[in-house]
Design brief:
Helices cover about 15% and strands about 35% of the residues. The protein is mainly β. The protein has seven domains: about 350 residues, Rossmann fold (3-Layer(aba) Sandwich); about 120 residues, Immunoglobulin-like (Sandwich); about 110 residues, Immunoglobulin-like; about 120 residues, Galactose-binding domain-like (Jelly Rolls), CATH 2.60.120.260; about 160 residues, no CATH class; about 120 residues, Immunoglobulin-like, CATH 2.60.40; about 110 residues, Sandwich (Immunoglobulin-like). Strands 36, 37, 38, 39, 40, 41 and 42 form a seven-stranded antiparallel sheet that branches. It has a six-stranded mixed sheet with strand order 4-3-6-10-11-12, with helices on both faces. Strands 22-28-27-24-25 form a five-stranded mixed sheet, with no helix packed on it. α1 crosses α2, α5 runs parallel beside α8 and α12 runs parallel beside α13. The longest helix is centred in the first third of the chain and has 19 residues. The two termini are about 65 Å apart.
Length: about 1150
């Protein structure tokens, strides 16, 4: 708790013996704890009191009755019936019934149990947004008869109704007792193992049992395996927290009580258990838990607060209607567990997504390739916080294989999510970009940060997706590289690790359009790696400093009017006898750089230019008595405020950025800052407008004051605005955006008024009625064209290198006297981290020695960045060429070698569910250069029916130069029925190599569901009997469940249900597998149960058995039933 992860509390740990010595004259008594608590409360600010150790009730520690008991009373409770709440009551003078310090207890007598609970706390609180299971609530209701069962069911249903309409929006599962047996056994393990936040019980109970019995979590037979997913339990019944009784023989033979077992068992069970220590009565218990639900899940001040604070508030708000009964519940409800545990994330919404929650899907059902027109990004979004009424927006960023990226926003408002939902975002292919290869898809939920959340760090997720090129991918010469001799050697990857026998074609030209008179066309025979050479253009040995463009595709795509694959292009510069390096000197090359700010390429004139902002704003409004009044705002024809968006008498205000004239929302929507105008056709930034009615003039003034100087403001009156209530401060605010004071003083209530102006500057346009009378009837229009030249832009190159030694930087630019130019060199280290290492305000130098700037050992790659600005002529300096020479770092190249393993290996036949699958792989280094590491990571991602179900990484040896390494992956097929795709990714961009796309391979296979029914056999004393036969009073009943699926095997007793009734009108009694008269075992093909009831009374009995296999196939449509007589 003293750590940042634990809450950064100031903690104090004290041995109880010290308290006896310092606060109770050395005498053993709970008064020592009480006196200590009073001292701490009066002299500090204690938040919580956590008692660690088992305690004994005062009736059990009489030395004459039980001398050993005192030594086991590690941390005594207070009073009788025992209470931990009473340790700190009567300390606060204002209300003696409220505990001064929220208290919890861990009832243990072994240090190992303390460590186990500490580990559970660490797991529980390490969870971030993925803990959506905490919104799963389970309600259990018992009762001895039908009327009690209806009443107790009504109690828990009321809790569900209370929480459903509150802030947390849980999902409820309710299980109710429906038999007259004293105890009905249920199996809760499946729900608990999946994850439950709160379990609430209301029924009859004792120290070791409930009338709707869920069992001891430590009992392996019960099937509880909920490591990391620990619920809070609120139990309304008797004595479930009677943990201070030294005699535990009644607790099913367990040395722990039921509540202790759930809290103290390692790696399973609960995080806390709130229950009564003595006799509980239904109405006070119902009221207590009602307050608990209302405070914990509905009160914005307590949602997400520690459970100890919630319990203290439950006691504080006790209505005192039946004070004695209510107070006993307050005092005797005991919290087992840490009182500082928080049940929720906080009192704000908290949207969460993760890498595993992002998937891509095509619209036609075919695999997504680089030529797929559009694809859908599906994002699972959870809200692990409170409900929210505000919609949100999503952005998707796609990073292409060459390192460039594109950001997509669709302007769609997604409905708020209370628990979990899947949203979709459509991305359309950009025909000007090559999307082939390994792409990174990054999604950002609420990218505008319009919603205040518990955490903003869990809204981003990304996934890597291989967009099959359906054609070859150029490898060398590298894009923008320098070739220094002829012939030039070319290499390409076929795009597929399996050879499909199709030929390829390469085109080489000095024009990027590939329509020059000397274009060279070369046909290449099929292979995984394609190699050829060229003397460049026919009859030409290469002209110095000439840029050459080359591209490759399948040969059968030439002239195809509807091509199914794309040309993939690269460029290089030929400079005879030059050092190796990188060069760009033509605009088709510059186009691939990252161009930002207001800079763009003038394609017609092949020049750099700044963008011109040309925006038309059209505004309509009308006076208070105008017929058919219209209030709307059109932004380049797009409705920011539609005709029916903003109703009522009010002032509408919108803000626009000074540099771009993009609209933005100044204040987030709230009661004091209401908005209108949001709609799906709005521009991305134009979210909505703030609106203020006639009683909110102070808020309007605050808005005008908050607009940054230089930004623009549009202010519109709608309906009957009371201008007469505008004081001098409001008018001064409107004057600050250029408003005319004389005009403002002339406005009467209900007059129409529009102004568009700059904060701290002049009005661009101010519109009022031109009438001398009847102004309230008039409709007015503001129509303004905002035209501005821009003056700033940046060009950032793609990564250059890797280099063993850096050479020189060469630049060529043209500029005028008003140009402000800064160039930067950004180093990229081996981890991919980018660090600016050099910056100078000047044009690119004609020559700069890079060895004086950076070390290739530290920064093997770089980017160049150019910043241009001109606020006088609005004309950017012209980048004509930038070039870097370097000695290339020898880099290996590996690929997954399908041919070595055999392509047929990956034609996997359908597998029955449960049968394991082992797939072999080979990874080959095709160069003479060894890898920089002796090992490589291999990532395995398995999807089942388009949902990711496995993500795993292992290390393999790095192959030597020209060597190969074999490895394999074994997969289970359990619970993976349907279409499966295993993606294998060797060296996922960790160790440097030339190219990564041929490190990825996918294997598809199908898993068949087991639909065969198991066979059930039942025998008595070794033989099958006829219905009604007489058997011995102590028969050995054998049940055998046989299944043909040897791979999917039952691991517990859930597959066999046995019940017995002793007369025709009696109810069946379930046979529990914890009964010592029951023995079971399982093997790959069968489950055997031996039930040996002892000394059955004379009479007629009915045995009922049902079996199901691990695939949930029943042994029969009806249970096996047989009568026998004793």
């Amino acid at each position: 708790r003293a750590t940042a992860q634990g809450g950064s509390y100031d903690t104090l740990t004290i041995n109880v013996q010290q308290l006896y010595d310092q606060f109770n004259y050395g005498e053993y008594s709970p008064l020592a704890i009480r006196n200590f608590a009073r001292y701490m409360f009066n002299n500090g600010s204690p938040r919580f009191l956590f008692l660690i150790g088992r305690g004994y009730s005062i009736k059990n520690i009489n030395g004459r009755v039980s001398p050993a008991a005192r030594g086991q009373d590690l941390v005594p409770p207070f009073g009788y019936p025992p209470s931990d709440v009473l340790l700190t009551t009567n300390i606060i003078t204002t209300d003696s019934r409220i505990p001064a310090i929220p208290t919890g207890r861990l009832s243990v007598n072994k240090s190992a149990d303390v460590i186990s609970y500490l580990n559970k706390i660490k797991e529980y609180e390490a969870l971030d947004g993925e803990a959506i299971w905490k919104k799963n609530f389970v309600h259990l209701s018992g009762g001895n008869n039908e009327s009690e069962q209806r009443l107790l069911r009504a109690y828990v249903d009321f809790y569900a109704q209370l929480a459903s309409g509150g802030l947390l929006t849980p999902v409820f599962t309710t299980i109710s007792k429906n038999t007259s047996q004293l105890v009905e056994v249920i199996n809760l393990s499946e729900l608990v193992n999946q994850g439950v936040g709160v379990i609430t019980f209301f029924g009859h109970s004792a120290i070791g049992i409930t009338d709707l019995e869920v069992g001891f979590v430590s009992d392996d037979i019960e099937g509880y395996r909920n490591k990391g997913r620990y619920p809070m339990i609120v139990a309304n019944g008797c004595q479930l927290a009677d943990i201070f009784d030294g005699d535990r023989s009644g607790a099913s033979g367990n040395s722990r009580s039921l509540s202790e077992d759930w809290v103290n068992t390692a790696d399973r069970g609960s995080i806390g258990f709130l229950a009564h220590t003595f006799i509980g009565y239904s109405v006070p218990l119902w009221r207590y838990s009602q307050r608990f639900y209302d405070i914990a899940f509905n009160n914005v001040n307590f949602v997400g607060r520690p459970v100890g604070d919630i319990i203290r508030e439950v006691i504080r708000l006790q209505p005192r209607t039946n004070e004695q009964a209510e107070t006993t519940v307050d005092q005797q409800m005991l919290l087992q567990g840490d009182p500082a545990v928080k049940l929720g994330r906080g009192n704000k919404p908290d949207y969460f997504t993760s890498n595993d929650f992002v998937s891509l899907k095509s619209f036609d059902g075919n695999p997504i390739t680089a030529v797929t027109d559009s694809f859908q990004v599906n994002i699972v979004v959870t809200n692990v916080g409170i409900r929210d009424a505000q919609p949100f927006r999503v952005s998707v960023e796609r990073t292409f294989a060459d390192g460039s990226s594109a950001l997509y926003t669709n302007g769609q408002d997604y409905n708020p999510i209370n628990v979990q939902d899947t949203i979709s975002f459509t991305v359309k292919r950009d025909p000007d970009r090559n999307g082939s290869g390994l792409n990174k898809i990054k999604v950002h939920i609420d990218y505008l940060n319009a919603i205040e959340e518990v955490s903003e760090t869990n809204n981003i997720a990304e996934t890597e997706v291989l967009f099959q090129s359906q054609g070859a991918i150029p490898l060398s010469p590298l894009d923008f590289s320098i070739a220094n001799r002829v012939p030039v050697d070319f290499t390409a990857f076929s795009g597929s690790l399996t050879n499909d026998g199709r030929r390829f074609v390469c085109e080489i030209d000095t024009l990027s359009t590939f329509d020059g008179p000397g274009k060279q066309t070369i046909f290449i025979e099929p292979n995984t790696l394609l190699n050829w050479s060229s003397n460049l253009l026919p009859g030409d040995s290469g002209q110095d400093s000439t840029v050459y463009y080359w591209r490759i595709n399948y040969a059968d795509q030439i002239g195809n009017p509807t091509p199914t694959t794309l040309w993939v292009d690269r460029s290089f510069t030929y400079i005879k006898d030059s050092p190796e390096g990188w060069s760009q000197s033509e605009f088709p090359q510059f186009e691939k750089d990252i161009i930002s700010g207001d800079l763009e390429i003038d394609q017609t004139n092949q020049r750099w230019k700044f963008k011109t902002i040309d925006t038309r704003v059209l505004v309509n409004t009308a006076g208070s008595t105008a017929s058919s009044p219209l209030t709307q705002v059109l932004y380049n024809g797009i409705p920011l405020i539609g005709a029916s968006d903003c109703a009522g008498d009010q002032v509408i205000v919108m803000a626009f950025k000074q540099g771009t004239f993009q609209p933005y929302l100044l204040f987030s929507p709230s009661v004091s800052n209401p908005t209108c105008g949001r709609n799906s056709s709005s521009t991305v930034s134009g979210l909505s407008a703030n609106v203020y009615n006639n009683s909110q003039t102070t808020n309007l003034r605050n808005y005008l004051d908050a607009v940054p100087n230089g930004d623009y403001v549009l202010l519109i009156s709608r309906g009957n605005v009371n201008f007469s209530s505008w004081d001098a401060s409001i008018k001064a605010g409107v004057q600050s955006i250029g408003g005319n004071l004389a005009v403002l003083n002339s406005l009467q209530d209900g007059h129409p008024y529009i102004i568009l102006g700059q904060k701290g500057g002049a009005a661009l346009q101010e519109v009022v009625s031109n009438k001398l009378t009847g102004q309230t009837d008039e409709k007015i229009v503001l129509d303004y064209n905002f035209v501005r030249s821009t003056s700033y832009g940046e060009i950032t190159s793609l990564p250059i290198g890797p280099a063993k030694n850096w050479g020189k930087l060469f630049g060529q630019m043209s500029a005028n006297a008003n140009d402000i130019i800064t160039y930067q060199i950004i180093g990229i280290d081996n981890s991919g981290r980018e660090v600016p290492v050099f910056s100078q305000q000047s044009a690119l130098p004609s020559e700069l020695d890079l060895q004086n700037v950076l070390n290739a050992a530290t920064f093997p790659s770089i980017r160049l960045k150019l910043i241009v600005q001109d606020t006088t002529d609005f004309s950017p300096a012209q980048l004509e060429r930038w070039m870097v020479t370097y000695e290339a770092l020898p880099t290996p190249e590996g690929l997954i070698d399908v041919e070595t393993v055999g392509q047929a290996t990956y034609n996997v036949a359908d597998r029955p569910e449960g049968e394991p699958l082992t797939l072999p792989f080979a990874y080959r280094n095709i160069t003479n250069v060894p890898f920089a590491s002796d090992s490589l990571w291999v990532r395995f991602v398995l999807t089942n029916n388009n949902q990711e179900v496995l993500r795993d990484s292992v290390k393999i040896l790095a192959p030597a130069a020209k060597g190969v390494v074999r490895f394999e992956k074994t997969l289970t097929t359990l619970n993976r029925v349907g279409a499966n795709t295993l993606t294998v990714y060797v060296n996922p961009r960790i160790v440097p190599e030339l190219y990564y796309e041929n490190n990825i391979f996918q294997v598809n296979y199908n898993v068949l569901r087991d639909n065969a029914n198991p066979i059930l056999e039942v025998s008595f004393d070794g033989r099958q009997i006829m219905d009604g036969e007489i058997v011995s009073p102590s028969p050995i009943i054998n049940v055998r469940l046989r299944d043909e699926n040897q791979y999917k095997v039952l691991q517990d007793t859930s597959g066999v249900n046995i019940s017995l009734k002793s007369c025709e009108t009696c109810e069946y009694q379930a046979v529990r597998f914890s009964d010592p008269n029951v023995v079971w075992n399982t093997s790959p093909t069968q489950t055997d149960v031996e039930f040996h009831p002892k000394n059955l009374a004379n009479g007629t009995y009915t045995l009922r058995v049902q079996g199901r296999d691990a695939s949930d196939n029943l042994a029969g449509t009806q249970p096996y039933t047989i009568n026998f007589e004793v």
